[in-house]
Amino acid sequence: MKPVNKNQTFENFSVNDGNAWALAALKTVIKDKNYYNPVYIYGEKGVGKSHLLNATINEIVELNKVVFLSAKELTVEVVEKIMMFDGDYVLIDNLH
User: Fold this and answer.
1) CB-hemisphere CA count at 13 Å for 2?
2) Residue 53 to residue 3: CA distance in whole angstroms
3) pLDDT 10s per residue in the chain (96 long)?
4) How distant is the alpha carbon of residue 48 from its chain centre?
5) Do 93 and 68 form a contact (C-beta atoms < 8 A)?
6) Which of 9, 20, 63, 91 has the most C-beta neighbours closer than 10 Å?
7) Is 70 helix (H, G, I), strand (E, B) or coil?
């Protein structure tokens, strides 16, 4: 499993016109996981996608069961385990 960066939060995320919608979507998902399902955040390298994902995890991890993966870890075996996972959220980083 990919380690979560506890230092990346919504409070220290630099919001701009290019990422404000992604921030709002993820905050909405935290309130209601069925509102956007799935959420796919994409953009150029360095625009804050991983920061937003870590911030989301940091918000939800205390109240929910979470799986956080890098795309490299997304294999058939892992997919099978996720399908049997009795959690609330599955988050995947760096899915190219």
Assistant:
1) 22
2) 12
3) 678 899 999 999 999 888 999 999 999 988 887 887 778 888 888 889 999 999 998 988 877 777 777 777 777 667 777 777 888 887 777 766
4) 12
5) yes
6) 91
7) strand
Amino acid in position 11: E
- Longest Cα–Cα distance of the chain, Å, equals 38
What CA–CA distance (Å, rounded) separates 94 from 49? 9
DSSP state of 8: -
Please name the residue that has the structure tokens 């990919």.
Answer: 2
Q: Whose CA is closest to 71, among 91, 49, 45?
A: 91
| Helix residue spans in the chain (DSSP H) | 20-31, 49-60, 76-84
Q: Evaluate whether 70 touches 93 at the Cβ level (below 8 Å).
A: yes
